From TrEMBL:
PANTHER family: CARBONIC ANHYDRASE
EC number, UniProt record: 4.2.1.1
GO terms assigned for molecular function: carbonate dehydratase activity; zinc ion binding
Annotated gene: LOC117574434
Gene Ontology cellular component terms for the protein in this record: cytoplasm
Primary role: Reversible hydration of carbon dioxide.
Protein name: Carbonic anhydrase
Limits of the Alpha-carbonic anhydrase domain: 28-289
Needed cofactors: Zn(2+)
InterPro entries recorded: CA_dom, CA_dom_sf, Carbonic_anhydrase_a-class, Carbonic_anhydrase_a-class_CS
Catalytically driven reaction(s): hydrogencarbonate + H(+) = CO2 + H2O
Pfam family, one: Carb_anhydrase
PROSITE patterns recorded: ALPHA_CA_1, ALPHA_CA_2
Amino acid sequence: MHFPAIGDFYKRLLFLLPFATEMPPEDRRFSYEAPMQWQYLYPQCGGVDQSPVPLNAQKVIPIGLPPLHFGLYDEPFDELLNVRNNGHTVEFSVPTTVYGERPYITGGLLEDFYEAMAVHFHWGSAQQKGSEHLLNGRRYDLEMHIVHRNTKYQSDEEARNQTDGLAVLAVLFKVVRTNYIYYQPGFTEILGSLLHVGEFNSSYTPAAFLTLGSLLGGLDRGNFYAYKGSLTTPPCSPAVLWHVFAEVLPISHLELPKFWQLRNRYGRPLLNNFRPLQSLERRQVFLRRPLEEYLWS
Ligand SMILES: [Zn+2]
């Protein structure tokens, strides 16, 4: 049947309404098969300052940035993690540390204190590398996001509506063909959890008290790209001060495929959960190089 009078807008509306009405706020349904359609339900996905973007050492602003400061990152959590498959990724909420506060960061592009709220991952498939950000034209195999909220805002919703509401630390991983990689205990526990959270909505609690810093391994925390961007999943709020580390960490070719075993809410393989690159437009990208430590100390 054909309706010549019906506008494109209404066609989209009819397509989206069944989802829109049944969807509680924390159960955001979206598909990586059609990321261009996110904007019809989440207008900010078609708006300004979107992420991810390509990062290129040749195209950065040579202005010094202060180092990031990591508060309580190496203090143990006061409870065990709960690692969960939410249908789009594997994630866990960041507990408070034994000092009663969550780990936090400041420095870099951050003028305030940002406390760590949650950690999740983006990956590809056997055929496709799956980092979200590109470094010097290369896509890597895995990307970890540690999402932080500005402590001057009381809720995630409030923070998402501010341009300085959130800060995300991104770590990229490159697959290496060796069995002998020393992972920090935190990352080992996350990898071990993957086999237990294959099905949608399943979760697993590793039996170890970890620190947030133990996810970063021996990463050079002083060398990072920084820019103003957005959440890379709906609602794509342009509220994120991104800090993407320049060093790429190794992950064994025996461990990476564990991410590809996960399944989404429809029981299908949860693969390629990375958003396509977005236009940088006129945004500036900063790169903090190790040399600058001399200038700032
Ligand atoms: Zn992410």
